[in-house]
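Regression test case RT-17, inverse folding.

Input:
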């Protein structure tokens, strides 16, 4: 008789452990599925050169600055923009960097000064926009 009394709590603990493991496994599966769905639906936000308008150029502290407006209907990501001057890669900084809302302006700072004869090319993923800064000072 003593044997049956000791067996019942052991079985109860094992059942509780199995129920807990089953609940954790189910919860993990649900969360993992939702995470994959969120990652899969992430929009591809990139540079849309047709939406960019270079509004002005100027020199400041020995560097060339461009003010660029996003004239598109969606956000653009300016953090991956690269620049060339007459085919030579340049170091640039974007302010602010990241997603730019429609009709917002951001600034690109290019190391060094450029001449009116030099052509600036901004590019990302094979798309590019070219610009010359006339009357820059």
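Golden output:
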């Amino acid at each position: 008789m003593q044997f049956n009394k000791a067996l019942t709590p052991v079985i109860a603990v094992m059942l509780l452990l199995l129920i807990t493991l089953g609940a954790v496994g189910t919860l993990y599966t649900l969360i993992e599925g939702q995470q994959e769905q969120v990652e899969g639906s992430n929009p591809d936000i990139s540079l849309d050169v047709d939406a960019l308008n270079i509004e002005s150029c100027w020199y400041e502290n020995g560097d060339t600055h461009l003010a660029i407006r996003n004239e598109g209907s969606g956000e653009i990501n300016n953090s991956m923009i690269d620049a060339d001057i007459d085919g030579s890669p340049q170091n640039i900084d974007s302010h602010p960097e990241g997603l730019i809302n429609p009709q917002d302006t951001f600034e690109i700072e290019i190391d060094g000064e450029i001449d009116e004869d030099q052509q600036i090319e901004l590019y990302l993923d094979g798309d590019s926009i070219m610009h010359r800064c006339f009357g820059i000072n």
